[in-house]
Design brief:
By secondary structure, the chain is mainly alpha-helical. The protein is built from 2 helices and 2 strands. The chain has a two-stranded antiparallel ribbon. Strand 1 and strand 2 form a beta hairpin.
Length: 81
């Protein structure tokens, strides 16, 4: 079952964190190995299509008009340390 549109990014964020924690796991089936490679490639595509590198600030800046309205709530989605 796919992610519901109202919580797609929240669910995917949690799943992606789990993948990151297990990124160096070498005990993978062939299918999982291929899926890991494709996931990494997709993540790179997302970054390249969503952000541009600003050489002046040496930072990644988002393309387009990102809504800052919810930025103050961003901390609730950051990984707890």
């Amino acid at each position: 079952m796919g992610n519901m549109s109202y919580c797609r990014f929240q669910n995917t964020l949690n799943d992606l964190r789990d993948c990151e924690e297990n990124l160096n796991n070498d005990d993978l089936s062939k299918d999982e190995f291929v899926a890991r490679k494709r996931l990494i490639e997709l993540c790179l595509d997302i970054v390249q299509n969503s952000f541009c590198y600003d050489e002046n600030t040496e930072d990644w800046e988002p393309y387009g008009d990102w809504n800052d309205e919810y930025e103050q709530d961003d901390d609730i989605y950051k990984e707890e340390e």
